[in-house]
Amino acid sequence: MHRVVARAFALLLFFGVTLSSSSATALSFQVDFRQSSYQVVGGDTFDDLMLEHASGSLISSNILQAAEGISSSVYAGNISGDYSLLISTDIVVAAGGTFELQIGTDWGRGGGGRVVNNDNSNVLYDYVTTDDIWWANNWNHADVISTGPMVLTAGSSYTLAWVGFEGCCAGSATIRYSYNGGAFQTLEESTFDPLIVPAPEPGTALLLGLGLLLMSLGRRHLHRR
């Protein structure tokens, strides 16, 4: 039990430090790389992937003002494999409507994503894939992952997060979005900022969810004993 609780607590602490430092401007992404050789398997949840990511030693941590050009070859110290990548941000929506996000990425060992409404802790979108994802810098590639479409409400705060695992050949991750059924655009400040305002307290829903996960893991272990 001590090992499980310690692992979950480390994750809780990690997100408390990492996410609380983001969102200095309207669009700010926390990008963290950690050592990991984990392979996503069937039955894994997004919370499981977060725990695996947090358990690895930190390679690099960066705050970016736009998602375009998030590249492991640049931000992960030129490593060529065996790492996990977490991309996260918090936004407050200024212009409500239907949003769809797409991420082009290289996750040789699978990964997942989540969108949470921080006002009520509701998970709007949640997925995990065990597939070898390699989008080849082509938005028409079958490995491009879509999040949504989903309706985001003006004035509400949301957490967007993606975590993936790579075992070979560092690639890149780029995010784009569609608003109210329009054409997809790169998720940059110049295009996305008019739709959002700065989020004052990033990571609320993820921290709450991780706290509940910590208690659940402890109860599950005690029950098995």
In short:
It is built from five helices and 14 strands. With 225 residues, the protein is an alpha+beta fold. The chain has a single domain, classed as Jelly Rolls (Sandwich), CATH 2.60.120.
Which range does the strand content fall in?
35-45%
How far apart are the first and last residues' alpha carbons, in Å?
10 Å
Cα gyration radius (Å): 17 Å
Percent of residues in helices: 25-40%
Please state the second-level CATH architecture.
Answer: Sandwich
Instruction: Give the CATH topology.
Output: Jelly Rolls
Largest sheet: 7 strands, antiparallel
Number of domains: 1
Secondary structure tally, helices: 5
SSE string: HEHEEHEEEEEEEEEEHEH
Shape: globular
User: Using DSSP, what is the number of strands?
Assistant: 14
Q: Structural class, please?
A: alpha+beta
- Regions with pLDDT < 50 over 5+ consecutive residues? 16-24, 200-205, 221-225
What does this structure look like?
- The structure is a single chain.
- With 225 residues, the protein is an alpha+beta fold.
- 25% of the residues lie in helices and 37% in strands.
- Strands 1, 2, 4, 7, 8, 11 and 14 form a 7-stranded antiparallel β-sheet that branches. Strands 3, 5, 10, 12 and 13 form a 5-stranded antiparallel β-sheet that branches. It has a two-stranded antiparallel sheet with strand order 6-9.
- Strand 7 and strand 8 form a beta hairpin.
- Helix 1 packs across helix 2 and helix 1 runs antiparallel to helix 5.
